[in-house]
Amino acid sequence: MGYRSSTLNSNALQERFKPGDKVTLSGWVSFVRKQKEVSFVGLRDAFGTIQVVVPHTQSFQGRLEDVVTVEGVLAERAGGKSGEFELRAEMVKVENHAKHPLPLGAGPATAAANAAYADQQTPQQRDASLKYRYLDLRVRPYLQRNLRIRGAAALAMRNFMTNEAGFLEVETPTLFKSTPEGAREFLVPVSSTEKDAKPKFYALVQSPQQYKQMLMVAGIDRYFQFARCYRDEGGRADRQPEFTQLDLEMSFVRESREVERVIEGVVKAGWKAAFQLFPSEVPTPPDELKEFPRMRLEDAMRDYGSDKPNLSYGMKIHYEDSVATVTAPGLWAAMSRKEKDDLKKFLFQEKLVDDARGSGEDYVVTAKDASHKRLGRARLILAQWMKKKGVPLPPGIMKEHEPIWITDFGMFEPNEEVEKSVSCVHHPFTAPHPDDLPKLAKTLQAIRDAPNPEEKWRQQQNLFTGLRAQHYDLVCDGMELGGGSIRIHSAELQQRVFQDALGISEEDCQAKFGHLLEALSLGAPPHGGFALGFDRFMTLMCGSQSISDTLAFPKSSMGTDPMTGAPCPLTDAEVGAVLGRFALKPSNA
Question: What structural domains does the chain harbor?
Answer without folding.
Answer: 10-96 (2.40.50.140), 313-388 (3.30.70), 404-527 (3.30.930.10)
